[in-house]
Amino acid sequence: MYRLLFEKQIWDQLDAHLRAASPYEDGAFFLVRPGRGISHSRLIVHELLLPPDTGWDASGLHNLRPSGQWLSAVIGAAIECGSGVGFIHSHPDPSHPPSLSGVDRQTSIDWSRTLTPTIDRPFLSLVWTPKGSTGWVFEPSDAETAHSVERIEVVGGGSSIWVHPFESLERDAELDDRQTRALGTLSNARLRQMSIAVVGSGGTGSPVAEQLARMGIQKLTLVDPDVIDTASNLRRVIGSHFGDLERKAPKAEVLGRHIKELDMVDDVEVLPMDVRTHLATQALLDSDLVIATTDTHSARSYINQLSYQYLLPVIDIGVKIGTSKTGVVSGMPAEVRVLLPDTGCLWCRGVLDADRIRAENLPEEERRAQSYEGYIQGVDEPQPSVISLNFFASSFTLITMLRMLTSEGVASPSQIADGWESYFSPGTSAIVPSCICKLWRAMADNVTISYLPTESSIVPQPINVAPVSFRSVWSRYHGRVKIWPRDKGKRSASK
What is the pLDDT of residue 480? Predict the structure, then answer.
């Protein structure tokens, strides 16, 4: 499956350009970076190349042909930064179906025969219509075989929306009745076709997963390496029982069993492993959305980078109970942070703690020794928890998700809600220009990822094996980090 992702700022510029030309056809090139998952490929649009004054050899109501000069400039720009090339043109007539015409299809194949081997990257041919956008992608390994771009997503501005045509589902109408009345037919259909990964299957992750299952999403992926090894886990993990404690069952497997018994999700994938392993990472890249409920800073920082590197929408949840030694509760805040490409990352927002990450990544014996000596505090200590706060946080998160799936978007990318103290407050979400995230944004596979080592031979190894810039593993890989350079400014489409 191929999905094409536009940052909202780029899409809005493209959409305005094509609408302004109506009723005449118009078009533009764009540059893409590929990101490979297990069964999906993410194609990240990182630069839009609008036509210069000499951009067209022919243009009109039903005629559009780029000039050789402009096409050469586009190819040069793509080769310069190691990117694929996409071309999108408009069919502004509302009666036109949202698909490439027969002439468009043959032209796309003819272009691909030349373009794809030249750039040695994917080539895309798309059409824009008032009813939506669709298109094809060609790979360097077979420049004449067209693959459908099944999803075209625009992320940013508080939203993650689809701009490809999709239809409402006829099945399960009675099951979906109340939900459809609340969300509308198309919004419910979008939800029903989503693939969502939940990282963390504990106190917050398990109610998130159950609610997603009852909403009827298409696929649910559960990622968590932890096991049920204390009785207190039984209070917090939905679907658990004392037999799971006796056998120290993996939390993801226990939750997955429960979700499968509900029989409301088409596909449940259980990955009882660290999210920083290769297989788990690729599963996240196959998802439409990731909901992070992990309580470790190292896993959270990893997901943070994936989000901005691959334009992967993420909702990160944090909960905390303030309790004094005398047992007085001072608050029960839940913070929901939406990670989209035009927002500050978790480093920008001051959420992540480099010292905490360093401590979490130490070998267990060394961490315990430093904890005993007082150099590390609170890393391995169980945190106060009550299931009602977990349910509150999970519901708050999924209401935020529902709004994020609309063009209206979320009111604030970071929000704090405290049911104990009865307040809601927006958090900070501004981009810090000097933050390390500027090295990852929209870079896709052009920045390599260093996965945790695994003993399993069935887990594939990363294609690019050079160590990466993950701040979460700096202490482990210090001195061996290699960063691919980001583009040196914008290129003119007419040069």
Answer: 29
